[in-house]
Write a structure and sequence with these properties.
alpha/beta, TIM Barrel, Lyase, Ornithine Decarboxylase, Chain A, domain 1, 8-stranded parallel sheet
Length: 386
């Protein structure tokens, strides 16, 4: 959709989601996963893209018998998806407060289990025999999960608790470092050994998942009976190393960014040389400058570390952020956008004409990763599927 078609939009800032690009990325990962059962991850508000919107778009593409799932971090996000009409299986990957475990039954949810305490609490529930859990095995990320040598005992505990042990999972700690696969190999070895002990003891584990976007893109052997696709689903690369290896291997089509973030020029003003800009007087104009005030700030997810560093696009022209990012606005040097007018569209992330601002560029400027740039986009911002 051309930017001119959005002029009737009455929002001061909004996020656009490309249905075409989302579906493209889905098909890329379906091809990469082969016969595996993907679990499309919607955690962290779908990495800032909007949990319900993205889940509905994915659900529309699911073919009968395809078996896609949704993975979320919180019980709240899982309940939201159910309330929004998502019928596909949902697994809660994060910790659930014990008093809320009963909602697993109410909303027909799966749970990733990492502790004996959670299993004990599950054993107290009514209708516990309807709950399906996946055992999280900590093979080296030192986060969630029990150690591999404890896995078999935990499997027996889950069975004794009266809940269904449906699957097992692990999480890679360093899979993005494609030049040094040693630690990833060690994690796979630990995981495979733990799974073999569990299955040899008579447990059936139909759903086993380890692979994330980076692993799927560069190490196909890590795709087991399911895959957790996170950042890649949204057309963003897990790291530059992964992107380079993926391109070199020619395993699939290029990913396409799904998200664009727009705002508008709220005010234009011409200022003289030497005019201080913004809080703290951290910057002064070095020449006569056309200043544009854009009504977004760190409360919306435009990080304060982008002060005097980030840039936006106005009428296809690259314009730098001046001074400090404020809570609800940024100050931009719009001198190069000579024909700019108040109410013109400002692109914070995305394409305008021949130029684009990527989440990766903002991440580099802010000293972080693209995951954080998109995941921190405020939920109050309107999301539009185009």
């Amino acid at each position: 959709m051309a930017l001119t078609a959005l002029k009737k939009n009455n929002q001061k800032t909004w996020i656009e989601l490309s249905r075409k690009n989302l579906r493209h990325n889905l098909e890329v990962f379906r091809g990469l996963c082969g016969s595996a059962t993907p679990i499309w991850t919607i955690k962290a508000n779908a990495y800032g893209h909007g949990a319900a919107l993205v889940a509905k778009e994915i659900q529309h593409t699911i073919k009968k018998g395809k078996g896609e799932w949704f993975g979320v971090d919180s019980i709240d996000e899982a309940v939201l998806l159910r309330q929004e009409g998502i019928a596909a299986p949902i697994i809660v990957l994060g910790w659930v407060p014990y008093p809320r475990l009963g909602e697993l039954v109410k909303y027909n949810l799966r749970l990733l289990v990492s502790s004996a305490r959670t299993v004990k609490e599950l054993s107290k529930l009514r209708n516990k025999n309807k709950i399906r859990v996946h055992l999280k095995i900590d093979t080296g990320a030192t986060r969630q999960g029990i150690f591999p040598e404890q896995a078999l005992a935990m499997a027996h505990m889950i069975r004794a608790a009266g809940v269904i042990l449906e699957g097992a999972a692990m999480h890679f700690a360093n899979i993005e470092d494609v030049d040094n696969p040693t630690y990833g190999d060690l994690q796979i070895e630990r995981f495979t050994h733990a799974i073999s002990l569990i299955e040899a003891s008579g447990f059936a584990l139909p759903v086993i998942h380890a692979a994330c976007s980076a692993a799927i893109m560069t190490r196909p052997e890590t795709v087991l009976t399911a895959a957790r696709i996170g950042i890649g689903l949204y057309g963003l690369n897990p790291s530059a190393l992964v992107a380079a290896r993926y391109k070199k291997q020619k395993r699939g089509a290029e990913l396409k960014p799904v998200l664009s973030w727009r705002s508008r020029i709220a005010l234009l003003k011409q200022v003289k040389t030497g005019t201080p800009v913004g809080y703290g007087l951290t910057e002064k104009t070095k020449k006569p400058t056309m200043i544009a005030i854009v009504p977004v700030g760190y409360a919306d997810g435009y990080d304060r570390s982008l002060s005097s560093c980030g840039h936006v696009l106005i009428n296809g022209k690259k314009c730098r952020v001046m001074g400090r990012v404020c809570m609800n606005m940024i100050i931009v040097d719009a001198t190069s956008a000579a024909r700019a007018k108040e109410n013109d569209i400002v692109t914070l992330i995305g394409r305008d004409g021949k130029r684009a601002v990527s989440a990766d560029e903002l991440a580099e400027c802010a000293g972080t990763i693209n995951y954080e740039v998109v995941a921190r986009l405020a939920e109050h911002i309107t999301r539009i599927v185009i």
